[in-house]
Write a structure and sequence with these properties.
By secondary structure, the chain is an alpha/beta fold. The protein contains ten helices and 16 strands. The chain has two domains: 118 residues, NAD(P)-binding Rossmann-like Domain (Rossmann fold), CATH 3.40.50.720; 237 residues, Dihydrodipicolinate Reductase, domain 2 (2-Layer Sandwich), CATH 3.30.360.10. The protein starts with a helix and ends with a strand.
Amino acid sequence: MGQVHARALSRLTQHYTDSPLRPRLVAVADTADDDRGARAADAYGFDHQFTDWKELVSRDDIDLVCVTGPNFIHRDVAVAAARAGKHLWVEKPAGRNAAETAEIVAAVEAAGVQTAAGFNYRNAPAVEHARELIASGRLGAVEHTTVRFISDYAAHPEGALSWRFLNEFAGSGVLGDLVSHAADLVRFVVADIDELVVDRATFIGQRPQAVGAASHFSRGGDGPLLDVENEDYVAALLRLADGSRGMLESSRVAVGEQCTYGIEVHGTKGSLSWDFRRMGELQLCLDQDFQNASYSTYFVSPGDGDLSAFQPGTGIAMSYDDLKVIEARRLVQSIVEGKPHGATIHDALVAARTVDAMIESSDERKWVRL
């Protein structure tokens, strides 16, 4: 993710030629005991490379800090950076829980700095168009929404027990990783979540000990099997602020699914659906009779969201990395104008409180109001 942020900042003025700021990559900090930091500095053109993030945060020539490490460092780095007067781009989940995320919010508000949070899926032009259609009433009153974030990255039973499977380092499992995205997407496209009830499960209870610097895509070695401490799967029923209902499902161990991230919204007059794997398309059912209606494919066009900053015509695909360039653009706007654009640390706090509520609901087997 650090590479993604570096690329996005480097590409900003290539896509937004009117950008009032041109970011310069000053320093990178990586605590790994190999030469990864040095390779990053060479590949992306950073002026300086550190193994201690405190050295980076204390520099006077840095205005913005990107927090892209594992979850357990997010709070410490972000709070220190905000107190040093640095603007922040923090990946989700900002803290391991809502309390840590609230600490970041407090530091940000006290310092008066601007922030961006890594809810990149809301930046897809098709998602923005879906939001506009719903807000305009084209679907009528929303009745129910389904959001699914399903992946296979942890499906292999010999996947290494990386930091992501241990609560001390991750805070939660698929809740913080994918459900935070899904909850933000519901809130951005349709309405706030008011109340929820949740079931969660861990299907692969033990994994081989990680060897070296392992990601959650890594295979384990021949070492001992250790306990997985957090959930692989979550299912939730939702009651939204607009009176509609919803369902949320997420898994990190779903064989056959890769980045199956999407949302379906059904209203009294029409419906729509979006799938990240076909990011530039919306399936729309609008302006038809109530029965025997059908879907058609809408391809995003220049004028939808920020598509025109990347592609000149309808049907030409964007990429995951492009969504992060849009995040960078909105953060720069926030810094220049002194007011938030795009997802911020405050949105990350809403997502963190939603995750905490889901844990409470699952543990106590009850509906929980946010």
